[in-house]
C-alpha cells in the first residue's frame, strides 16, 4: 500500500509523508516551492444508507441523489462553505449539519470532517424521527 499525506507545518512549510508498507518518509517543502496542489473531493459514507432510505421513501430519491452529487463534487473547508450551497440547512454543532430533504419532508444529518474531506451520514428520516433524537450533536 502506498499513501501520501500532506500537511501544512507552519506558515512557510509543507510536510509531505510518503507511506509505503508501513515505512514512513517525511519531507518538508517550503510553501513557495509548491506550484500545484490538487484538492480531493468529498467522500460520502455511505450512499448505501441513502439508497436504503429512498427504496422505502421513493419521494426522497431525487433530492437525496442531488444532495449526494453536489456534496461529492465539492471541496468544503468549513460549515460556511456548506451553508452557501444549502441555505436552508442548519449547523447543529460538533461538525453536524441538518439538511431538509424532499421539500422538507425528511431530515438528513451529516457529520463533516473537513480536514480529511469526508462526510458521514449520521441520520436520515422523517421529522418525527428527527424530533426523537435526544443528542443531535453526538448522533
What would you note in describing this structure?
It is globular, with a radius of gyration of 18 Å. Helix 1 runs antiparallel to helix 2. A five-stranded mixed sheet has the order 4-8-7-6-5. Strand 6 and strand 7 form a beta hairpin. It is of the alpha+beta class and 139 residues long. It folds into two domains: 32 residues, no CATH class; 96 residues. The protein contains four helices and eight strands, in the order ββββαααββββα.
Topology:
Layout: E1 2-10, E2 13-20, E3 23-30, E4 43-45, H1 47-56, H2 61-72, H3 79-85, E5 90-93, E6 96-101, E7 106-113, E8 118-126, H4 127-131
Parallel strand pairs: 4-8
Antiparallel strand pairs: 1-2, 2-3, 5-6, 6-7, 7-8
Helix pairs in contact: 1-2
What is the total domain count?
2
Shape: globular
Number-wise, the strands total 8
Structural class: alpha+beta
Features:
2 domains, 139 residues, globular, alpha+beta, 40% strand
Short description, anyone?
This protein is about 25% helix and about 40% strand. The protein is an alpha+beta fold and about 140 residues long.
